[in-house]
Amino acid sequence: MDIEEKLKILADSAKYDASCSSSGSSRTNKNGIGNGDVSGICHSWGADGRCISLLKILMSNCCMYDCKYCINRSSNTVKRATFTSREVADLTIGFYKRNYIEGLFLSSAVIKSPDYTMELLYQTISILRNEYHFNGYIHTKTIPGSSPELIDKLGKLVDRMSINIELPSSDSLKLLAPEKSKSDILTPMKYVANSINNSKLLLQESSSKYHLKPKKESFVPAGQTTQLIVGATPETDLKIMKLSENLYNKIKLKRVYYSAYISVNEDKNLPTLKVPPLLRENRLYQADWLLRFYGFKADELLNEKNPNFNTMLDPKCEWALRNIDFFPIEINTAGYYKLLRVPGIGVTSAKRIMTARRESKLNFDNLKKLGVVLKRAQYFITCNGKYFDKICYFNQSFISSNLMYLERQNLPSPDYFQTSLFDDLLPTKGDKIKCLTGNL
Amino acid sequence: MLNWKFIDEIFLYDGTFDGLLTIVFDCYISKRLPQKIVPKDEYVQNILDKTSFIETDFEKSSKVFEGIHKNICNDALYNAYYAFLSANRSGICDNKEIEIVKFLLKGFVVGPKIMTMLSVSYVLNVFKLRKNMLAEAHKLKGLVRLQEIGDNVFYSSIHPENNVIENIGHFFMKRFPMQNLILHDKNRQIAFLYNTKKYEIIDVNDNITPTITKEEKEFQTLWKTFFKTIAIKERTNKRCQMQYMPKKYWQDLVEMK
Description:
The complex is a heterodimer of chains A (about 450) and B (about 260).
Chain A: H1 3-14, E1 44-45, E2 51-52, E3 54-58, H2 85-97, E4 103-107, H3 114-131, E5 137-141, H4 148-155, E6 160-162, H5 170-176, H6 182-210, E7 224-230, H7 237-250, E8 255-260, H8 278-293, H9 298-301, H10 315-322, E9 329-330, H11 336-339, H12 347-356, H13 364-370, H14 374-377, E10 381-382, H15 396-410, H16 429-437
Parallel strand pairs in A: 3-4, 4-5, 5-6, 6-7, 7-8, 9-10
Antiparallel strand pairs in A: 1-2
Helix pairs in contact in A: 2-3, 3-4, 4-6, 7-8
Chain B: E1 5-6, E2 10-13, H1 17-30, E3 32-33, E4 36-39, E5 51-53, H2 58-71, H3 74-85, H4 96-110, H5 121-143, E6 147-150, E7 153-158, H6 165-175, E8 180-185, E9 190-194, E10 199-203, H7 214-230, H8 238-244
Parallel strand pairs in B: 1-3, 2-4, 2-5, 7-8
Antiparallel strand pairs in B: 6-7, 8-9, 9-10
Helix pairs in contact in B: 1-2, 1-4, 3-4, 3-5, 4-5, 5-6
């Protein structure tokens, strides 16, 4: 089998991994090739609009497990291939030299045993780092159930490690991935988290003791991530958000990726979906951002009464409408985290407002010039005590109908719509034409 | 607002950053500001305009250079330089040079505080120009495709809107210190050359299309295969792809050609 054929098979199997970020590593070049870029760089965008920044491939797709949702499960008849370590290393260097990629994302199916697979990954990375002196970004998978010694060895060479939780609860895991257990996944994850923490503490200690700059070499400097499948099992959004919150707070993960379930296999335990639940995935990502950068808590966004996100409104708008007493917020005096709670004001806008208002008081015109989008924010803020428009407009039902109208333009048009009380309030394009032609 | 007198005149300069700093010096001394500042080559004759050409004076420009460093801050200098490199295509302001001059003159009055005065229009415009230029530079750091045209010699043609070649040249120099690099800006006909020891930016006058090596061809095929395979068919979204990777860059991309 030639290298192109192998690449085709093993890239095809790797494409369902959502993670592609190349940020967080500031590895410098030491007489070799490549360096890390802290902000990360995207090199291309595929036909699905996802960025390509890493050479994302599997070492092998000859899997010994039989996870129901996975295309490479052992009972499937798909073409199988395995790279050699040298092939992966040469391919990475060849692509990197031509600036096609930012680095390597190496994952693998489980061959023979978890430890055997980890050893294969280690050999490849070792060729890249020690023989070719490659300093670009490397992301590898931690294989569930692998031993701590191997994790240690690999962690010292790579920038990021990830281990996929796959399904949001242990019951679902039992149902769909019977050979993987919760502890197989969580034990290595916690081990990596501990090692990262220890290496950070060690660096801090040595640098404060000797007044030196901390050394660059450390354990998994770009942190740990995970991924879970949404829509294959009946968990609610609340449960998923709670899980993510715990992973961020307790295990200090950098990211949790959500992947809308795409049915590639047929099984009695799997749902049959024609289209992947992309909108739900989008809402989860929006909420994920709220957890990480906006100071929200999962409990605030969802509760037992509303365990799932509204498809008509984004999570922040939904929260704002439920807590309308929190508003309006005065732009010229509110603190940073208070500003962030306004729908339509994000991290960039909030920071810009904080800087600009130091010099002079801001009004709505100033905000527009600063690049703050008022489409949503106008309903929730005051500038120098003034509302954007007449005060009688600022009631819950008016705002919610307007926001839903805005949001609907962004949504892909579905075949049917849930009827809403507010649907008829706003004139449609057809109505406007009728008015103009006098054809009522 | 600045307490300067506006004169009904258009200043021409040679199109270099030193030339612009010379104008800053002259304006500061004479306390007068022109209506517009235009590079000599780009100026279109108009019978109503009163123009005067300002000769570049390196003594004056270096004085302004040091003055910015001492009295304002380094960040302001970067702001001015990056704004100067911006092409101002997306209509941020009428004339980028006059905004930069106003920004620096005001900076000499208020000091480092200038960096927070975002509600003043010319300060904001300078920030926007800088952002516009740096954003394209960042994008091109990913979208440049190096092609091997000889033993360890890598060539890339680019068509950027802004003058980003110096910025991205430095980036690639650090990343591939062992490779000989040629970055060719076809919109401006300039090239960044690097020979593993030092770099140079030169004017290129003829249209070169170098031939690629056999190994290069193989890697291009592999890359195209990877590019096609990695997209998930069920999630096809060409609009999203085009938003991130505008068509103006496609001519230089191996995978989109």
